[in-house]
Amino acid sequence: MHNLRRLKPYLKPHSRRIAQACVVMVFVAIFNGAMVWLLKPVVDYVFIKKDPRMLAGVVLIIPIIFLTKMIFTYTQAYLMSYLGQIITQEIREDLFRHLHELSLEFFWRSRSGDILSRLTNDLTRLQDGIQFVPLYLVRDSLTVLILLVVMFFIHWQFALTALFTIPFAASVLSVLGKKLRTSSRKSQEIMGELYSRFQESLQGMLVVKAFNYESGAIARFQIENDALFNQMMRYFRATALSGPLMEFLGSLIMAAVIWQGGKEILAFKMTPGSFFVFLGSFFAAYAPIKNISQLNSKLQMALVSADRIFQVLDEKPSVVDKPLAPKFESLKSLIEFENVSFRYGGQERWALRNVSFKIQAGQTVGVVGPSGSGKTTLVYLMLRLFDPSEGRILIDGKDIRDYCSASLRAKMGLVTQETVLFNDTVSANVSLGNPHATEDEIIEALKIADAYDFVSRLENGLLTHLGDRGLKLSGGERQRLAIARSVLKKPSLLILDEATSNLDAASEKSVQAALERVSKSNTTLSIAHRLSSIKNAGKILVFNRGELAESGSHEELIALNGLYATLDRFQKISVEP
Ligand SMILES: Nc1ncnc2c1ncn2[C@@H]1O[C@H](COP(=O)(O)OP(=O)(O)OP(=O)(O)O)[C@@H](O)[C@H]1O
Ligand SMILES: [Mg+2]
Predict the structure, then answer these.
(1) Fold topology of 2-313
(2) Long-range Cβ contacts of 304-308 (<8 Å, 24+ apart)
(3) For ligand 1, atom 6: residue with the closest CA
(4) Deepest in the core among 15, 357, 374, 545, taking most CB within 10 A?
């Protein structure tokens, strides 16, 4: 019930089409029920009484009736497909939009495969339900009703017998249907597994090759592929049986009806025409009964899927703007962390504990610390992807929770270890955060990032397509595009999270040079593994297990002879043996 209510806003704008579809379905049902009457004049007047005028009449009327039926059937199919498609299209769009409105926390909590399957499989099932449930409910129930009336009208004792066989036929059909559904669901699951194996190998081909994992991957694939074959054969055995089985059951009933009807005709209590109309009605009811027997399962499947879809749509973002939150314009003097603590959802351990520090406008602040000490978490809080569990982050004295978060992020330039490039042109990738940038501005940003040379060497320059995940570029080139992307935003704060640690020495040098140039004219928060890259920073923060352990300039920290000095000694040993 709840899910039906949730669907209402999607159905409402289409209420006129839905009404039209219902009217057309009623007509289709009437035609389906009334057509069996054609058998009576054919048998009684043409074949038995040998009336030539009736022959001509019947020959004329048959095409006309079928033409009309064709128009109604087509309109009905068109309207129902239209409704199924348009409603799921709208839900799909809402899902995509809603996913983008959710906070990062949601995506770490959920498996992407699960979300994808809701976007695809569940939506298809829902569409199926929207398209077929009303059809079975209105058209087929009405058809069966009309056919029953016809049968009662002709011979109520027979009709009563026939009425009793309906639940029997429906239950056989539903048992078979259940079997089909189970095996179809299982094969879909296996299909999903196979699909993800393909995906895994396609994405990880480099590792597959480097580790000679080809035969291992193939062997695992074969096991599942065999399982799919067996499951599909089980499915087809059930499908192949259901048709002939129903035919055989039908033949038994037919034999009984012919036996009884034959006696009635021989006793002149019934005309052969009426008998054939009766028999025709009985068999015409088969397809609609088959559909009605699937009605409940289709409805249930659609509702389960609707539920899974609405679960996603009902998710609330964890970071929410205050109503009428003002836009963040730019950093004027100071960014301040004030006793900030944070732990990730469901975690006991603090990722950051009681952290306080200041970044002056124009300053470059370096951040170092062992792996897992909370450096990246710092970035997430700065970008307001999460809110601190305790404490505040202030920009020019104002809590960042009081600003509109989109305007805040618009002024943060982020360069991470992993550069995500989209399957689009160089220029579109660079102007991601600033879609109104002019070509000149893009070129300038590329020059600052030391990327203009290699971009202009690409076959179509700025308009070169980067292919899937930017595979056409080297690590250093991708990184420089990421820097250009951030520079173009003219950020109030440039955040570098190990921006060079994925690169070889040569690319690191050029990226590092580009970064230093950018940092000079920007307020920068630079996280680094290699201490050499932040040595010149005005202030260095040293993190350890979520706490700010030390801070100061390079010289001060060396003199302190604490964690920083130890890290420095280790790196000197490994770099300069
Ligand atoms: N999504 C998450 N859910 C739960 N815990 C997390 C999550 N991300 C990080 N953590 C935990 O928070 C702590 C800090 O992680 P963070 O990524 O900030 O470390 P880091 O200093 O950036 O490390 P590295 O140098 O390896 O990048 C770690 O203990 C980590 O296990
Ligand atoms: Mg990190």
Answers:
(1) ABC transporter transmembrane region fold (1.20.1560)
(2) 304/125, 305/121, 305/122, 305/123, 305/125, 305/126, 305/129, 306/3, 306/6, 306/7, 306/122, 306/126, 306/129, 307/3, 308/118, 308/122
(3) 344
(4) 374
